[in-house]
Design a protein that fits this description.
single chain, alpha/beta, Rossmann fold, Pantoate--beta-alanine Ligase, Chain: A,domain 2, 2 domains, six-stranded parallel beta sheet, 19% strand, binds pantoate
Length: 278
Amino acid sequence: METLNDIAALDRFRPRAGEIVLIPTMGALHAGHASLIQHGAKLAEARGGSCVVWIFVNPTQFNDPADYARYPKTLDADLAICKSSGARGVFVPSKDEIYPPGRTVRVPELPRVATQPGLEDARRPGHFAGVCQVVLRFFEIVKPKVAVFGEKDWQQLQVVRAMTRREMPGVEIAPMPTVREPDGLAMSSRNRFLTAEDRVKALAISKALRVAGGEASPKRAEAVMGDVLNEAGISPEYAVVRDAETLEERETESQRALIAAKVGNVRLIDNVAWPVRG
Ligand code: PAF
């Protein structure tokens, strides 16, 4: 595995790489990322290409500078996970390479799914503009054939899909299911900030999604999610059922239940397909 610290190193690697399957990350990797990399490595192998992980904590998608400053940085452990999961390259550029001083890096037009009322944009205005900006910038630099995104950030997955369809239709977006701890908590780089007490409390999020799956209507499911969370002492930012692709508030063939909530001072998100059939 090669660590590529700048665009020049990536360009030297490219002729040996074949088609690139890209795994976008901000580092602080865990078993959820490992599953993305393993999947990417398989896709790359089938194409005779290479799986490349990008590690870059993107400042433009944080609306809270304190959140950006405290984002965990664990590069040595990250490189070990990349290697054992089958990555051939890890691209770790500096901030100045991605956002060259004095140069404006284009923010693509935001797809409608980014600003659906009551979801991420209501709580983190500007977040998806930063995500789209950095994803497009990396796609332009790395020129992947496929990019693998986790389903845990469901709205991000839909935003990136819609943005990529318009801006770089040659890049395929491959989704991967959320990886959970044995007790149901969705894996996240932020889980390490939970106190022992809040770690137990956070289980109410996956429980609420599970219980809501058996309800007969979106309104009932939303009420039940609210009840389970409130009982655990969690006041959700949202706990809703939406169309899975557009995230519009209407009943459709394919729907998703989504929750965002602060547990202590840690913001967690999770989602599942709704309803749970069978
Ligand atoms: O999901 C993430 O880790 C980030 O939002 C991403 C896609 C790597 C962009 O910085």
